[in-house]
Amino acid sequence: MGSNRMKKVLMIAYQFPPMGGAGVQRTAKFAKYLPNFNWEPVIFTRQEVKSHLQDSSLMKDVSKDLTIIRTKSYDIREWPGIFGLGGKWLSRKFLYPDGERIWQVFNQKIAAEIIQKEKIDVIYTTSYPYSDHLLGLYLKKQFPNIPWVVDFRDEWTNNPYILDMNYSNFRMKKEKKMEKAVIENCDFFITNTPIMLRNFKDDYSLLQKNNSFVIPNGYDEEDFIGLQRKVPYNEKMIITYTGAMYGRRKPDSFFQALQELIQENSISKDKIEVRFIGEYAKNLNEKIVQYGLKKVVKVLPYMKHRESIQKLLESDILLLIIGAGPGAETFYTGKVFEYLNTNRPILALVPEKGVAAQLLRETQTGWIADIQDTSKIKQNIKQLYQKWNNREEMITPDRNVIQQYERKMLTKKLAQVLDLTQRDL
Known about the structure:
With 425 residues, the protein is α/β, with parallel strands linked by helices. Helix content is 39%, strand content 16%. Helix 4 (131-142) crosses helix 6 and helix 8 (252-263) crosses helix 13. The longest helix has 18 residues, at 101-118.
């Protein structure tokens, strides 16, 4: 292998810009910064589609020179009208591990051709969807000499959202078998959080220290360039939440705490405004009414990535919610790192023993309460409100720790793993 040639990594990522959402950004940012470390990414993804959350602004991270192979999605959930509902049902019921399985099976030959045509040095797969890894497994069997790096943004069979689905034993066994095959055949293994890696190691003893790594999500300093960073002096205390709200992630205990504080006259409803920014089911509005917070809580539509960061910077406090239950302590959520880089206090409703709470303690940015501990949530809101009212400092962020989560630094870690794959070649 010529030492001057930039090495090539095939990045298999079904979710890629202009698809929106937090999960997409990890791969897009890696692809943006890998060339700095002598790695040329080649992206293998699906064709653009309108029905998914779109954020065309994320394409600014995608270099004009980047090779992107966009393949037909074969997604039965995207059938028109009522057929789409049928497609969703069929894919949930019969497609293991996810609805992207058809895409994987129908496009694996194309992926194999790309490996030869592009002279790929390393295969990298990232989930969700887990079918990305099954495509990697297929390719590893076709090209056993090409190293394969697996990246889990979330857990698979231990994922809280999957545990909550109550899949049949038959299905769970089948998916466990798939998961095992991925882990046994990959060369290097990456997870998003330390607890996640520990859980995988508990299940699979063959994951060694020297082939498994933690690379968290992060923030991109470039996304903040030109934005107004100064702490605002708002007439109302603005609390902002950005991103999705689904499954166990519910605002109920936050709304209850707020409602009680207003009723007790601990805070004035004329001096507080809560903003939810994103795509939400209509039951969020129903809950706002149910808790008597119609004058306090505003729901704003999904915004382009940079706009949503600007909204964070215009806020006094940022709201972070991670639901309770099995597996919840392994979650950071992607947006927490952008929250950190705003230097705003984070009102965190998260498992107190989880990785998110640990991160907020390390960076000295959070006010932490378990999502089920309404009295602690109340206490935190009340103290933040008093400090805001008196113009007192609410946090003293540790910038040295926060800067470890900058995307360039994290991509350097990925490049180091990719370099390791070339050591014995």
